[in-house]
Protein backbone atom coordinates (compact mmCIF):
# COMPACT_ATOMS: atom_id res chain seq x y z
CA UNK A 1 0.00 0.00 0.00
CA UNK A 2 1.42 3.31 -1.02
CA UNK A 3 1.25 5.95 1.63
CA UNK A 4 0.01 9.29 0.41
CA UNK A 5 1.10 12.39 2.20
CA UNK A 6 -1.35 15.22 1.81
CA UNK A 7 0.03 18.71 1.95
CA UNK A 8 -1.93 21.87 2.57
CA UNK A 9 -1.43 24.65 0.09
CA UNK A 10 0.29 27.45 2.00
CA UNK A 11 -2.24 30.14 2.81
CA UNK A 12 -1.56 33.66 1.69
CA UNK A 13 -1.43 36.25 4.42
CA UNK A 14 -3.75 39.23 4.21
CA UNK A 15 -0.84 41.48 3.36
CA UNK A 16 0.05 39.27 0.41
CA UNK A 17 -3.56 39.12 -0.71
CA UNK A 18 -4.24 42.83 -0.58
CA UNK A 19 -1.06 44.18 -2.14
CA UNK A 20 -0.48 41.35 -4.66
CA UNK A 21 3.02 40.84 -3.28
CA UNK A 22 3.62 37.81 -5.49
CA UNK A 23 2.84 39.87 -8.58
CA UNK A 24 5.38 42.43 -7.46
CA UNK A 25 7.99 39.77 -6.76
CA UNK A 26 7.59 38.31 -10.24
CA UNK A 27 7.66 41.69 -11.91
CA UNK A 28 10.84 42.57 -10.06
CA UNK A 29 12.49 39.51 -11.57
CA UNK A 30 11.36 40.25 -15.11
CA UNK A 31 12.48 43.86 -15.00
CA UNK A 32 15.85 42.72 -13.67
CA UNK A 33 16.15 40.34 -16.60
CA UNK A 34 15.05 43.06 -18.99
CA UNK A 35 18.16 45.10 -18.25
CA UNK A 36 20.52 42.12 -18.33
CA UNK A 37 22.54 41.23 -21.37
CA UNK A 38 21.03 38.67 -23.69
CA UNK A 39 22.52 35.21 -23.51
CA UNK A 40 21.64 33.93 -26.96
CA UNK A 41 23.91 33.27 -29.91
CA UNK A 42 22.92 34.54 -33.33
CA UNK A 43 23.18 31.04 -34.75
CA UNK A 44 23.90 31.20 -38.44
CA UNK A 45 26.25 34.13 -37.86
CA UNK A 46 28.03 32.89 -34.77
CA UNK A 47 28.47 29.23 -33.99
CA UNK A 48 29.51 27.64 -30.74
CA UNK A 49 32.16 24.94 -30.73
CA UNK A 50 30.81 21.94 -28.86
CA UNK A 51 32.95 20.11 -26.31
CA UNK A 52 35.36 17.50 -27.60
CA UNK A 53 33.15 14.62 -26.52
CA UNK A 54 30.24 15.93 -28.58
CA UNK A 55 28.60 13.21 -30.64
CA UNK A 56 28.38 14.75 -34.08
CA UNK A 57 28.96 13.46 -37.58
CA UNK A 58 31.14 10.32 -37.73
CA UNK A 59 34.71 10.29 -38.99
CA UNK A 60 37.60 7.87 -39.46
CA UNK A 61 40.94 8.32 -37.82
CA UNK A 62 43.80 7.80 -40.27
CA UNK A 63 47.00 5.82 -40.03
CA UNK A 64 49.37 8.39 -38.55
CA UNK A 65 51.51 6.56 -36.00
CA UNK A 66 49.27 7.17 -33.01
CA UNK A 67 47.36 3.91 -33.36
CA UNK A 68 46.71 1.53 -30.44
CA UNK A 69 48.79 -1.71 -30.35
CA UNK A 70 45.85 -3.73 -31.65
CA UNK A 71 46.11 -1.94 -34.95
CA UNK A 72 49.75 -2.83 -35.37
CA UNK A 73 48.84 -6.51 -34.95
CA UNK A 74 46.23 -6.29 -37.65
CA UNK A 75 48.36 -4.18 -39.97
CA UNK A 76 50.20 -7.29 -41.19
CA UNK A 77 47.06 -8.43 -42.93
CA UNK A 78 45.93 -5.02 -44.20
CA UNK A 79 46.84 -2.86 -47.15
CA UNK A 80 46.70 0.61 -45.57
CA UNK A 81 48.97 3.43 -46.67
CA UNK A 82 50.15 6.15 -44.30
CA UNK A 83 47.43 8.80 -44.06
CA UNK A 84 44.60 6.51 -45.09
CA UNK A 85 41.63 5.44 -42.99
CA UNK A 86 42.55 2.99 -40.25
CA UNK A 87 39.45 0.87 -40.85
CA UNK A 88 40.16 -2.85 -40.88
CA UNK A 89 36.60 -3.85 -41.90
CA UNK A 90 35.99 -5.89 -38.76
CA UNK A 91 32.25 -5.05 -38.72
CA UNK A 92 32.37 -4.43 -34.97
CA UNK A 93 30.66 -1.08 -35.39
CA UNK A 94 27.89 -2.69 -37.36
CA UNK A 95 27.52 -5.36 -34.69
CA UNK A 96 27.25 -2.77 -31.95
CA UNK A 97 24.86 -0.54 -33.84
CA UNK A 98 21.22 -0.57 -32.77
CA UNK A 99 20.32 -0.02 -36.43
CA UNK A 100 22.89 -2.21 -38.20
CA UNK A 101 21.55 -1.70 -41.71
CA UNK A 102 22.79 1.85 -41.82
CA UNK A 103 26.30 0.50 -42.43
CA UNK A 104 27.50 -0.75 -45.83
CA UNK A 105 31.02 -2.09 -45.31
CA UNK A 106 32.88 -4.07 -47.97
CA UNK A 107 36.44 -5.27 -48.26
CA UNK A 108 38.37 -7.18 -50.96
CA UNK A 109 41.37 -9.46 -50.99
CA UNK A 110 44.28 -8.18 -53.01
CA UNK A 111 46.51 -10.58 -55.11
CA UNK A 112 49.23 -10.30 -52.45
CA UNK A 113 46.84 -11.79 -49.89
CA UNK A 114 46.19 -8.60 -47.97
CA UNK A 115 42.81 -7.08 -47.20
CA UNK A 116 41.68 -3.70 -48.39
CA UNK A 117 38.57 -1.79 -47.37
CA UNK A 118 36.70 -0.67 -50.48
CA UNK A 119 33.51 0.69 -49.08
CA UNK A 120 32.41 2.17 -45.79
CA UNK A 121 29.09 3.97 -46.12
CA UNK A 122 26.90 5.16 -43.29
CA UNK A 123 23.36 6.31 -43.82
CA UNK A 124 23.11 8.96 -41.10
CA UNK A 125 19.38 9.36 -41.70
CA UNK A 126 19.00 6.18 -39.65
CA UNK A 127 21.68 7.00 -37.12
CA UNK A 128 20.67 7.96 -33.61
CA UNK A 129 24.14 9.20 -32.64
CA UNK A 130 24.42 6.90 -29.63
CA UNK A 131 28.15 6.42 -30.04
CA UNK A 132 28.15 2.63 -29.57
CA UNK A 133 30.11 2.18 -32.80
CA UNK A 134 32.85 4.39 -31.37
CA UNK A 135 33.10 2.22 -28.26
CA UNK A 136 33.13 -0.95 -30.33
CA UNK A 137 35.95 -0.02 -32.68
CA UNK A 138 39.05 -2.11 -31.84
CA UNK A 139 41.53 0.12 -33.67
CA UNK A 140 40.20 3.51 -32.48
CA UNK A 141 39.20 4.27 -36.03
CA UNK A 142 35.59 5.45 -36.09
CA UNK A 143 35.03 8.53 -33.94
CA UNK A 144 32.41 11.21 -33.63
CA UNK A 145 33.40 14.78 -34.36
CA UNK A 146 32.14 18.14 -33.22
CA UNK A 147 30.37 18.83 -36.51
CA UNK A 148 26.61 18.99 -36.10
CA UNK A 149 25.34 20.52 -39.30
CA UNK A 150 24.37 17.30 -41.05
CA UNK A 151 21.27 18.60 -42.80
CA UNK A 152 21.05 18.20 -46.54
CA UNK A 153 18.61 18.95 -49.33
CA UNK A 154 18.48 15.33 -50.51
CA UNK A 155 18.81 11.93 -48.91
CA UNK A 156 21.97 11.28 -50.87
CA UNK A 157 23.69 14.05 -48.97
CA UNK A 158 23.14 12.37 -45.62
CA UNK A 159 25.22 9.29 -46.50
CA UNK A 160 28.89 9.54 -45.58
CA UNK A 161 31.65 7.59 -47.30
CA UNK A 162 35.10 6.23 -46.59
CA UNK A 163 37.08 9.09 -48.12
CA UNK A 164 35.18 12.00 -46.62
CA UNK A 165 35.14 10.30 -43.22
CA UNK A 166 38.93 10.04 -43.36
CA UNK A 167 39.14 13.67 -44.37
CA UNK A 168 36.88 14.72 -41.50
CA UNK A 169 38.90 12.64 -39.05
CA UNK A 170 42.14 14.24 -40.18
CA UNK A 171 40.59 17.66 -39.78
CA UNK A 172 39.18 16.86 -36.31
CA UNK A 173 42.47 15.44 -35.05
CA UNK A 174 44.41 18.39 -36.39
CA UNK A 175 42.18 20.76 -34.51
CA UNK A 176 41.44 18.98 -31.26
CA UNK A 177 43.62 15.90 -30.76
CA UNK A 178 45.65 17.44 -27.96
CA UNK A 179 42.73 19.04 -26.18
CA UNK A 180 42.11 17.48 -22.74
CA UNK A 181 39.08 15.24 -22.68
CA UNK A 182 36.47 17.12 -20.70
CA UNK A 183 32.79 17.82 -20.94
CA UNK A 184 32.48 21.05 -19.02
CA UNK A 185 34.83 23.91 -19.23
CA UNK A 186 35.01 25.22 -15.67
CA UNK A 187 34.65 28.91 -15.69
CA UNK A 188 34.46 31.64 -13.09
CA UNK A 189 30.74 32.12 -13.68
CA UNK A 190 29.84 28.55 -12.74
CA UNK A 191 32.21 28.68 -9.80
CA UNK A 192 30.51 31.81 -8.53
CA UNK A 193 27.05 30.34 -8.94
CA UNK A 194 27.53 26.85 -7.59
CA UNK A 195 30.89 26.83 -5.85
CA UNK A 196 33.86 24.60 -6.41
CA UNK A 197 33.86 20.84 -6.80
CA UNK A 198 35.61 18.98 -3.98
CA UNK A 199 37.01 15.49 -4.47
CA UNK A 200 37.66 13.19 -1.54
CA UNK B 1 -24.62 73.76 -45.94
CA UNK B 2 -21.12 74.72 -47.02
CA UNK B 3 -19.99 74.56 -43.45
CA UNK B 4 -21.43 71.07 -43.10
CA UNK B 5 -19.54 69.83 -46.17
CA UNK B 6 -16.28 71.31 -44.94
CA UNK B 7 -16.77 69.82 -41.49
CA UNK B 8 -17.55 66.38 -42.86
CA UNK B 9 -14.55 66.46 -45.19
CA UNK B 10 -12.32 67.59 -42.33
CA UNK B 11 -13.61 64.81 -40.09
CA UNK B 12 -13.26 62.27 -42.88
CA UNK B 13 -9.64 63.22 -43.51
CA UNK B 14 -8.94 63.26 -39.81
CA UNK B 15 -10.49 59.81 -39.32
CA UNK B 16 -8.44 58.47 -42.19
CA UNK B 17 -5.28 59.87 -40.65
CA UNK B 18 -6.21 58.39 -37.28
CA UNK B 19 -7.03 54.96 -38.71
CA UNK B 20 -3.90 54.73 -40.86
CA UNK B 21 -1.80 56.08 -38.02
CA UNK B 22 -3.30 53.55 -35.64
CA UNK B 23 -2.60 50.72 -38.10
CA UNK B 24 1.04 51.71 -38.43
CA UNK B 25 1.33 52.25 -34.71
CA UNK B 26 -0.22 48.85 -34.00
CA UNK B 27 2.23 47.24 -36.40
CA UNK B 28 5.11 48.78 -34.52
CA UNK B 29 3.55 47.98 -31.16
CA UNK B 30 3.98 44.34 -32.17
CA UNK B 31 7.67 45.07 -32.66
CA UNK B 32 7.87 46.75 -29.26
CA UNK B 33 6.08 43.86 -27.62
CA UNK B 34 8.35 41.29 -29.23
CA UNK B 35 11.44 43.22 -28.25
CA UNK B 36 10.18 43.59 -24.70
CA UNK B 37 9.23 39.93 -24.42
CA UNK B 38 12.59 38.95 -25.80
CA UNK B 39 14.60 41.01 -23.38
CA UNK B 40 12.51 39.88 -20.43
CA UNK B 41 13.53 36.35 -21.35
CA UNK B 42 17.14 37.41 -22.01
CA UNK B 43 16.95 36.98 -25.77
CA UNK B 44 17.13 39.84 -28.25
CA UNK B 45 13.82 39.42 -30.12
CA UNK B 46 13.61 40.28 -33.83
CA UNK B 47 17.05 41.25 -34.98
CA UNK B 48 17.79 40.55 -38.63
CA UNK B 49 15.11 42.26 -40.71
CA UNK B 50 16.29 45.82 -40.79
CA UNK B 51 18.18 47.56 -38.01
CA UNK B 52 17.33 45.64 -34.81
CA UNK B 53 14.36 44.10 -36.62
CA UNK B 54 12.70 47.43 -37.38
CA UNK B 55 11.30 46.14 -40.68
CA UNK B 56 9.92 43.01 -39.03
CA UNK B 57 6.32 44.32 -38.75
CA UNK B 58 6.29 45.02 -42.50
CA UNK B 59 7.60 41.56 -43.25
CA UNK B 60 4.99 40.06 -40.93
CA UNK B 61 2.21 42.07 -42.54
CA UNK B 62 3.29 40.92 -45.99
CA UNK B 63 3.41 37.34 -44.81
CA UNK B 64 0.00 37.44 -43.17
CA UNK B 65 -1.60 39.17 -46.15
CA UNK B 66 -0.26 36.71 -48.71
CA UNK B 67 -1.11 33.57 -46.75
CA UNK B 68 -3.81 31.25 -47.99
CA UNK B 69 -7.14 32.16 -46.44
CA UNK B 70 -8.81 28.93 -45.38
CA UNK B 71 -12.44 28.85 -44.33
CA UNK B 72 -13.14 25.48 -42.71
CA UNK B 73 -16.15 23.38 -43.63
CA UNK B 74 -19.23 23.74 -41.49
CA UNK B 75 -18.58 27.28 -40.29
CA UNK B 76 -21.31 29.88 -40.29
CA UNK B 77 -19.76 31.90 -43.10
CA UNK B 78 -21.53 35.18 -42.47
CA UNK B 79 -20.70 35.29 -38.77
CA UNK B 80 -17.24 33.91 -39.43
CA UNK B 81 -16.39 36.87 -41.62
CA UNK B 82 -18.32 39.31 -39.48
CA UNK B 83 -16.50 38.26 -36.31
CA UNK B 84 -13.07 39.35 -37.50
CA UNK B 85 -14.50 42.73 -38.42
CA UNK B 86 -16.50 43.03 -35.22
CA UNK B 87 -13.43 42.38 -33.13
CA UNK B 88 -11.45 44.96 -35.02
CA UNK B 89 -13.74 47.87 -35.93
CA UNK B 90 -15.09 48.75 -32.46
CA UNK B 91 -11.58 48.70 -31.03
CA UNK B 92 -10.51 51.33 -33.52
CA UNK B 93 -13.82 53.22 -33.19
CA UNK B 94 -12.97 54.16 -29.60
CA UNK B 95 -10.33 56.41 -31.13
CA UNK B 96 -13.16 58.68 -32.31
CA UNK B 97 -13.58 60.09 -28.83
CA UNK B 98 -10.00 59.94 -27.53
CA UNK B 99 -8.38 63.37 -27.54
CA UNK B 100 -4.61 63.47 -28.00
CA UNK B 101 -4.09 67.08 -27.04
CA UNK B 102 -5.46 70.57 -27.01
CA UNK B 103 -6.34 72.32 -30.28
CA UNK B 104 -3.26 73.93 -31.77
CA UNK B 105 -2.93 76.74 -34.29
CA UNK B 106 -0.83 76.04 -37.36
CA UNK B 107 -0.68 78.79 -40.02
CA UNK B 108 -3.92 80.32 -38.75
CA UNK B 109 -5.88 77.08 -38.92
CA UNK B 110 -7.09 75.56 -35.72
CA UNK B 111 -6.25 71.86 -35.76
CA UNK B 112 -7.94 69.67 -33.21
CA UNK B 113 -6.01 66.50 -32.44
CA UNK B 114 -9.19 64.51 -31.87
CA UNK B 115 -12.04 63.49 -34.14
CA UNK B 116 -14.98 64.53 -32.03
CA UNK B 117 -15.46 65.91 -28.55
CA UNK B 118 -18.74 64.39 -27.48
CA UNK B 119 -20.36 65.17 -24.18
CA UNK B 120 -20.96 61.41 -23.79
CA UNK B 121 -17.49 60.42 -24.97
CA UNK B 122 -16.68 58.08 -22.14
CA UNK B 123 -19.98 56.25 -22.42
CA UNK B 124 -19.43 55.86 -26.16
CA UNK B 125 -15.97 54.42 -25.49
CA UNK B 126 -17.43 51.95 -23.01
CA UNK B 127 -20.15 50.99 -25.49
CA UNK B 128 -17.65 50.31 -28.27
CA UNK B 129 -15.54 48.36 -25.86
CA UNK B 130 -18.53 46.16 -25.10
CA UNK B 131 -19.35 45.65 -28.78
CA UNK B 132 -15.85 44.37 -29.53
CA UNK B 133 -16.67 41.37 -27.33
CA UNK B 134 -19.23 40.23 -29.87
CA UNK B 135 -16.36 39.66 -32.26
CA UNK B 136 -14.83 37.12 -29.91
CA UNK B 137 -18.13 35.43 -29.10
CA UNK B 138 -19.17 35.26 -32.76
CA UNK B 139 -15.78 33.90 -33.70
CA UNK B 140 -16.17 31.18 -31.11
CA UNK B 141 -19.70 30.34 -32.17
CA UNK B 142 -19.25 30.54 -35.94
CA UNK B 143 -16.13 28.37 -36.02
CA UNK B 144 -18.17 25.22 -35.31
CA UNK B 145 -15.36 23.79 -33.25
CA UNK B 146 -15.04 23.07 -29.57
CA UNK B 147 -11.94 25.07 -28.65
CA UNK B 148 -13.08 28.37 -30.16
CA UNK B 149 -16.47 27.80 -28.58
CA UNK B 150 -14.96 27.38 -25.11
CA UNK B 151 -12.69 30.37 -25.70
CA UNK B 152 -15.57 32.59 -26.74
CA UNK B 153 -17.69 31.58 -23.78
CA UNK B 154 -14.84 32.14 -21.35
CA UNK B 155 -14.28 35.59 -22.77
CA UNK B 156 -17.97 36.36 -22.38
CA UNK B 157 -17.92 35.19 -18.76
CA UNK B 158 -14.84 37.27 -17.97
CA UNK B 159 -16.13 40.36 -19.67
CA UNK B 160 -19.57 40.41 -18.10
CA UNK B 161 -17.77 40.72 -14.77
CA UNK B 162 -15.14 43.25 -15.74
CA UNK B 163 -17.35 45.54 -17.82
CA UNK B 164 -19.39 46.22 -14.70
CA UNK B 165 -16.33 46.89 -12.57
CA UNK B 166 -14.82 49.04 -15.34
CA UNK B 167 -17.95 51.14 -15.60
CA UNK B 168 -18.14 51.68 -11.86
CA UNK B 169 -14.45 52.48 -11.58
CA UNK B 170 -14.84 55.21 -14.19
CA UNK B 171 -17.52 56.86 -12.07
CA UNK B 172 -14.94 58.41 -9.71
CA UNK B 173 -13.20 60.68 -12.26
CA UNK B 174 -16.57 61.48 -13.85
CA UNK B 175 -17.89 62.64 -10.48
CA UNK B 176 -14.88 64.86 -9.93
CA UNK B 177 -14.88 66.31 -13.45
CA UNK B 178 -18.65 66.58 -13.69
CA UNK B 179 -18.61 65.62 -17.36
CA UNK B 180 -18.45 62.60 -19.65
CA UNK B 181 -16.39 64.44 -22.23
CA UNK B 182 -12.83 63.12 -22.20
CA UNK B 183 -11.53 66.58 -22.98
CA UNK B 184 -13.51 68.02 -20.11
CA UNK B 185 -12.07 65.39 -17.78
CA UNK B 186 -8.54 66.34 -18.80
CA UNK B 187 -9.26 70.02 -18.32
CA UNK B 188 -10.60 69.32 -14.83
CA UNK B 189 -7.18 67.87 -13.88
CA UNK B 190 -5.18 71.06 -14.34
CA UNK B 191 -4.25 71.07 -10.66
CA UNK B 192 -4.25 67.61 -9.17
CA UNK B 193 -4.43 64.40 -11.17
CA UNK B 194 -7.42 62.23 -10.40
CA UNK B 195 -5.14 59.37 -9.35
CA UNK B 196 -5.00 60.88 -5.86
CA UNK B 197 -8.44 60.06 -4.48
CA UNK B 198 -9.12 57.45 -7.21
CA UNK B 199 -6.28 55.04 -6.51
CA UNK B 200 -8.71 52.15 -5.93
CA UNK B 201 -10.53 52.93 -9.13
CA UNK B 202 -7.22 52.95 -10.98
CA UNK B 203 -6.34 49.49 -9.67
CA UNK B 204 -9.74 48.19 -10.76
CA UNK B 205 -9.24 49.73 -14.19
CA UNK B 206 -5.81 48.13 -14.52
CA UNK B 207 -7.31 44.71 -13.92
CA UNK B 208 -10.30 45.47 -16.13
CA UNK B 209 -8.09 46.52 -19.04
CA UNK B 210 -6.01 43.36 -18.65
CA UNK B 211 -9.20 41.30 -18.71
CA UNK B 212 -10.80 43.25 -21.54
CA UNK B 213 -7.79 42.99 -23.83
CA UNK B 214 -7.08 39.39 -22.89
CA UNK B 215 -3.57 39.99 -21.68
CA UNK B 216 -1.85 37.47 -19.57
CA UNK B 217 -3.10 37.01 -16.10
CA UNK B 218 -6.55 36.94 -17.71
CA UNK B 219 -5.90 35.46 -21.15
CA UNK B 220 -8.27 32.55 -20.60
CA UNK B 221 -9.94 33.01 -23.96
CA UNK B 222 -6.85 31.93 -25.85
CA UNK B 223 -5.04 29.89 -23.18
CA UNK B 224 -2.60 28.20 -25.56
CA UNK B 225 -2.00 25.26 -23.29
CA UNK B 226 -5.66 24.37 -23.00
CA UNK B 227 -7.48 25.75 -26.03
CA UNK B 228 -4.97 25.50 -28.89
CA UNK B 229 -5.36 29.18 -29.71
CA UNK B 230 -8.78 29.91 -28.26
CA UNK B 231 -11.47 31.64 -30.23
CA UNK B 232 -9.30 32.24 -33.30
CA UNK B 233 -8.18 28.63 -33.75
CA UNK B 234 -10.05 28.16 -37.02
CA UNK B 235 -8.97 31.45 -38.56
CA UNK B 236 -6.11 31.89 -40.97
CA UNK B 237 -4.26 34.60 -42.87
CA UNK B 238 -5.27 38.22 -42.28
CA UNK B 239 -8.53 37.30 -40.53
CA UNK B 240 -6.36 35.58 -37.94
CA UNK B 241 -4.00 38.53 -37.83
CA UNK B 242 -6.78 40.98 -37.09
CA UNK B 243 -7.70 39.43 -33.74
CA UNK B 244 -4.43 39.92 -31.87
CA UNK B 245 -3.94 43.23 -33.66
CA UNK B 246 -7.31 44.43 -32.39
CA UNK B 247 -7.14 42.94 -28.93
CA UNK B 248 -3.55 43.04 -27.88
CA UNK B 249 -2.46 46.23 -29.55
CA UNK B 250 -5.24 48.58 -30.61
CA UNK B 251 -7.55 47.86 -27.67
CA UNK B 252 -4.72 47.95 -25.15
CA UNK B 253 -3.41 51.17 -26.62
CA UNK B 254 -6.77 52.91 -26.71
CA UNK B 255 -7.81 51.75 -23.26
CA UNK B 256 -4.42 52.85 -21.91
CA UNK B 257 -5.14 56.24 -23.47
CA UNK B 258 -8.47 56.36 -21.66
CA UNK B 259 -6.85 55.32 -18.38
CA UNK B 260 -4.21 58.05 -18.80
CA UNK B 261 -6.92 60.60 -19.50
CA UNK B 262 -9.00 59.52 -16.52
CA UNK B 263 -6.24 59.26 -13.92
CA UNK B 264 -2.99 60.85 -15.06
CA UNK B 265 -4.18 64.16 -16.35
CA UNK B 266 -4.03 63.40 -20.07
CA UNK B 267 -1.76 65.93 -21.73
CA UNK B 268 -1.34 68.09 -18.63
CA UNK B 269 2.26 68.61 -17.66
CA UNK B 270 4.87 71.34 -17.48
CA UNK B 271 5.34 73.17 -20.78
CA UNK B 272 8.98 72.30 -21.21
CA UNK B 273 8.87 71.01 -24.78
CA UNK B 274 7.33 74.14 -26.29
CA UNK B 275 4.28 73.85 -28.52
CA UNK B 276 4.47 70.07 -28.73
CA UNK B 277 4.63 69.50 -24.99
CA UNK B 278 0.96 68.32 -24.60
CA UNK B 279 1.52 65.61 -27.22
CA UNK B 280 4.82 64.59 -25.75
CA UNK B 281 3.40 64.36 -22.24
CA UNK B 282 0.39 62.42 -23.44
CA UNK B 283 2.38 59.92 -25.48
CA UNK B 284 4.96 59.56 -22.73
CA UNK B 285 2.28 58.66 -20.20
CA UNK B 286 0.58 56.43 -22.75
CA UNK B 287 3.82 54.62 -23.56
CA UNK B 288 4.51 54.05 -19.88
CA UNK B 289 1.02 52.69 -19.38
CA UNK B 290 1.36 50.38 -22.39
CA UNK B 291 4.76 49.17 -21.26
CA UNK B 292 3.28 48.43 -17.87
CA UNK B 293 0.73 46.14 -19.49
CA UNK B 294 3.47 44.44 -21.48
CA UNK B 295 5.45 44.02 -18.30
CA UNK B 296 2.52 42.37 -16.54
CA UNK B 297 1.80 40.24 -19.57
CA UNK B 298 5.28 38.83 -19.84
CA UNK B 299 5.61 38.17 -16.11
CA UNK B 300 2.53 36.50 -14.79
CA UNK B 301 0.99 33.09 -15.34
CA UNK B 302 -2.68 32.61 -16.09
CA UNK B 303 -5.53 32.68 -13.59
CA UNK B 304 -8.15 29.98 -13.68
CA UNK B 305 -11.49 31.04 -15.18
CA UNK B 306 -13.40 30.71 -11.92
CA UNK B 307 -10.69 32.69 -10.12
CA UNK B 308 -10.99 35.49 -12.66
CA UNK B 309 -14.75 35.81 -12.39
CA UNK B 310 -14.48 35.49 -8.62
CA UNK B 311 -11.96 38.32 -8.58
CA UNK B 312 -14.25 40.41 -10.75
CA UNK B 313 -17.40 40.03 -8.70
CA UNK B 314 -16.01 39.61 -5.18
CA UNK B 315 -13.07 42.00 -5.21
CA UNK B 316 -13.10 44.41 -8.13
CA UNK B 317 -16.78 45.37 -8.04
CA UNK B 318 -16.77 46.13 -4.27
CA UNK B 319 -13.48 47.98 -4.69
CA UNK B 320 -14.93 50.21 -7.38
CA UNK B 321 -17.94 50.92 -5.16
CA UNK B 322 -15.62 51.79 -2.27
CA UNK B 323 -13.80 54.07 -4.68
CA UNK B 324 -17.03 55.92 -5.41
CA UNK B 325 -17.58 56.39 -1.67
CA UNK B 326 -14.03 57.66 -1.16
CA UNK B 327 -14.36 60.12 -4.04
CA UNK B 328 -17.72 61.31 -2.74
CA UNK B 329 -16.20 62.03 0.67
CA UNK B 330 -13.24 63.73 -1.03
CA UNK B 331 -15.57 65.95 -3.02
CA UNK B 332 -17.55 66.82 0.13
CA UNK B 333 -14.38 67.82 1.98
CA UNK B 334 -12.37 69.55 -0.76
CA UNK B 335 -15.23 70.61 -3.01
Which key features would you list for this structure?
heterodimer; A: 200 residues; alpha+beta; Alpha-Beta Plaits; three-stranded antiparallel beta sheet; two-stranded antiparallel sheet; 5 strands; elongated; B: 335 residues; mainly alpha; 2 domains; two-stranded antiparallel ribbon; 2 strands; 2% strand
Shape of chain B: globular
Structural class of chain B: mainly alpha
Rg over alpha carbons of chain B: 20 Å
Mean pLDDT of chain A: 87
Topology pattern of chain A, helix = H, strand = E: HHEHHEEHEEHH
Which ranges of chain B are low-confidence, i.e. pLDDT below 50, for 5 or more consecutive residues?
Answer: none
CATH topology of the domain at 58-176 in chain A: Alpha-Beta Plaits
Please tally the β strands of chain B and state the result. Answer: 2
The topology string of helices and strands of chain B comes to HHHEEHHHHHHHHH
In what range is the share of β-strand residues of chain B? under 5%
Percentage of helical residues of chain A?
A: 25-40%
Distance between the amino and carboxyl termini of chain A: 40 Å
Instruction: Report the major sheet of chain B.
Output: 2 strands, antiparallel
Structure explained in plain terms:
The complex is a heterodimer of chains A (200) and B (335). Chain A has 200 residues and is α+β, with helices and mostly antiparallel strands. Chain A has a domain of 119 residues: Alpha-Beta Plaits, CATH 3.30.70.3270. Chain A is built from seven helices and five strands. A three-stranded antiparallel β-sheet of chain A has the order 2-3-5. A two-stranded antiparallel ribbon of chain A has the order 1-4. The longest helix of chain A has 15 residues. The radius of gyration of chain A is 26 Å and the shape is elongated. Chain B has 335 residues and is mostly helical. Chain B has two domains: 66 residues; 262 residues, no CATH class. In chain B, strands 1-2 form a two-stranded antiparallel ribbon. In chain B, helix 1 crosses helix 2. Chains A and B meet through helix 2 of A and helix 1 of B.
